Every structure is written in C-alpha cells, then in structure tokens.
Amino acid sequence: MTPSPVLTATGLVKQYGALRALDGVSLTIRAGESVAVMGASGSGKTTLLQCLAAVIAPDGGSIVLTVPGAAPRELVGLSEGDRARIRRDSLGFVFQEHLLLPELTAVENAALPLLLKGVRRQDAERHAAAWMATLGLAGLETRRIGQLSGGQAQRVAIARAQVTGAPVVFADEPTGALDSATSAEVLDALLFATTGQGRTLVMVTHDADVAARCSRIVRVSDGRIVADSAAASLSSGGAR
Ligand SMILES: Nc1ncnc2c1ncn2[C@@H]1O[C@H](COP(=O)(O)OP(=O)(O)OP(=O)(O)O)[C@@H](O)[C@H]1O
Ligand SMILES: [Mg+2]
Q1: Which atom of ligand 1 is nearest to the CA of 223?
Q2: 217 lines ligand 1 (CB under 6 A)
Q3: Packing angle between helix 150-162 and helix 121-134, nearest 10 degrees?
Q4: Is 168 helix (H, G, I), strand (E, B) or coil?
C-alpha cells in the first residue's frame, strides 16, 4: 500500500529578480519517506526546502500539506502569520549551523518549540530531556551550547526538531559542518528520530553517503528536478 502524501508541490516557481530559483517544481512526498535533495551549489535546493517548509513564499504554484488529524492545507498564498503557525504546529527544522541559542542550556534549547506552544516549562524540559537521552545526550542537559561538541550540538538541534512530535522534519545540510564519523552519528540520530518514528524527513545534502541512507534522492539543477529515484540502499528508514 502506498503511504499517503504529506506534501504535494505542483508547478512551484520562485523568482529573485531576473533569476528563477525554482522553475516549475512538482514533487509529492509521502508519509515515512526520507528524501535527500541534492544538486550543485545555487541549484535551488534551499529555496525548494524553504518553500516546502513554509519559510518563504513561492511566487507561483501550489503546495498542499496534509498532516495527521488536520485537513489538507494549501501553503501558497498564506499570510506570514499563518505560515508561522503551520511551522510551529506541524514542522520541525534542523540546519547546518544548528541555530541554538548560546545563552540557553542544552535542554532549554531542545524545549524551546514546546515553550513557544505554551507548554509549562517543567513539562517541556522533561520531554526535551527524554529526547536528549534517546539521542545519547543524557547528562548534558545543563551545558551551554558552547560547551558541547559540534555533533552533540547538532543532536540537541535534532531533539529540538522532535519535541513537538512534528510529522514532517526539514533539514538543510544537517551534517555539512561535521567530520565524517560525527556526520554518520548525527545521521543515525536524525533518521531514528524521524522516519524511525514514522515521521517524514526532507533533507538537503551534498554528501552522497548521507543521501544513500535516505529512501529517495531528488536531484535539482537550475531550479528544476532532473532526477528522482529510490536510493540504492532503499532502507525504509531508521538507524542502521
Ligand atoms: N534571498 C535571495 N535573494 C536573491 N537571490 C537568492 C536568494 N536566495 C537564493 N538566491 C539565489 O537563488 C539560487 C538558488 O539558491 P539556493 O540557496 O536555493 O541554492 P542551493 O542549491 O541551496 O545552494 P547551496 O548548495 O550553495 O546551499 C541561487 O542562484 C541564489 O543565489
Ligand atoms: Mg543551500
């Protein structure tokens, strides 16, 4: 049985002045997939990810987001505020530069999306600490971000992307700043936390080894999808 679509993009266009960063992209992403988006620098990967994630608004086309327990939502044409609510309620994010707040502790950083949703601090931090423990970070809760290694900080960012239970997680070069051993560990954590829990992962990466661990590879060139295939390993998700 084919899993149901969570994101359906049709004819996406994003224009920066004279440049078409996205030139008619159509893509359907189904529940539980891990999709690696690859392509040369400047090809439009981040632009595509940010449109799908309701971070930026495309100039044309359609993106329908369907998450469990909610009616399908058209993202194109929504106000900034509506997009922010959808990001907060349904989506998780992990970036290359983990974007953690240095003045907060690790557990406070991981708990942030829950605090922003109005969850009580104690409950939010308990839940965040549980995710940290799952990702191998027990005992590091009260460290500041500057006192963590790059791989540990990135796992805090992964915990932060999971705490709300977001059904779709977006990652833009989540292992881009890490050495290869740490990169493999962080990828294990990310796949376990997302597809391993039945969630959907959409990830930009330059790293063919990282992409090969995803269930599908989408290649972008000059703002268009030029290839779309199951990855060689075809693991249906989860850590090795
Ligand atoms: N805010 C912006 N204003 C103007 N042009 C932009 C903006 N963001 C991206 N672009 C341009 O759009 C094109 C696609 O950019 P994008 O960031 O999506 O590339 P990318 O594939 O993610 O590249 P990289 O691998 O270097 O991160 C590039 O030519 C880029 O210069
Ligand atoms: Mg990019």
Answers
A1: 14
A2: no
A3: 130
A4: strand
Does 223 sit in the ligand 1 pocket, CB within 6 Å?
no
Residue of minimum CA distance from atom 4 in ligand 1: 16
Q: Is 34 in the pocket of ligand 1 (CB under 6 A)?
A: no
Instruction: Name every residue whose Cβ is closer than 8 Å to that of residue 218 and which is 6 or more positions away in sequence.
Output: 27, 35, 36, 37, 38, 225, 227, 228
Q: Report mean pLDDT in 10-residue bins for the chain, 240 residues.
A: 92 97 97 97 97 96 94 96 93 85 95 94 97 94 95 94 94 89 90 94 95 97 95 48
Which residue in this structure is represented by tokens 């557990």? 107
Instruction: Please write the tens of the pLDDT for every residue from 178-200.
Output: 888 888 988 999 999 999 999 99
* Tokens, residue 29: 């992403």
**Ligand 1 neighbour 21 (Cβ under 6 A):** yes
Task: Say what the pLDDT of residue 239 is.
Answer: 39
| pLDDT for 39 | 97
Contacts of 170 (CB under 8 A, 6+ apart): 49, 52, 53, 91, 92, 93, 94, 201, 202, 203
Whole-number Å distance between alpha carbons of 77 and 5: 20
**Closest atom of ligand 1 to CA, residue 220:** 21
Q: Calculate how far, in angstroms, residue 29's C-alpha sits from the geometric centre of ligand 1.
A: 22
Q: Distance (Å, rounded) from C-alpha 194 to C-alpha 163?
A: 11
